[in-house]
Amino acid sequence: MNELPFFEEKSELISNFSSNDSKEQDLHSPGNIAALLATAKINNRKAKLLIQHFKTIESLKNAAPLELEQVAKCGKVDFSNLKYSSIQENSGVKVVTYFDDEYPIGLKD
User: Fold this and answer.
1) pLDDT of 73-107, one tens digit each?
2) What is the CATH number of domain 4-107?
């Protein structure tokens, strides 16, 4: 019985690690949106299409050029070096992206 809190703490650490790892894989996260927009030949429209279709960095990196061309007309773009860009939220400033619930509805499409 004394081990139960230890396991809870351990599972809490694992879940924190998993959420950080999934944040770096999720294309909807601000860091990945910034990295995608910093890629040559990717504008806001293409980034939105890629994010909605692929969902994770791994699926985007593994996509065939034909699929990239069909989704966002960017078949010749190399995403193999795409990396999560850490965005700091300081001084009470929160980064809100198009995909967040807090994003103003009037600004969408």
Assistant:
1) 998 899 999 988 887 667 678 888 888 999 998 98
2) 1.10.150
7: Cβ contacts below 8 Å, ≥ 6 apart: none
Q: Are 27 and 54 in contact (CB under 8 A)?
A: yes
d(CA 74, CA 65): 8
Nearest to 47 by CA among 79, 12, 22: 79
pTM value surpassing 0.90: no
Q: Mean pLDDT throughout 51-64? A: 94
For the chain, what are the domain ranges? 4-107
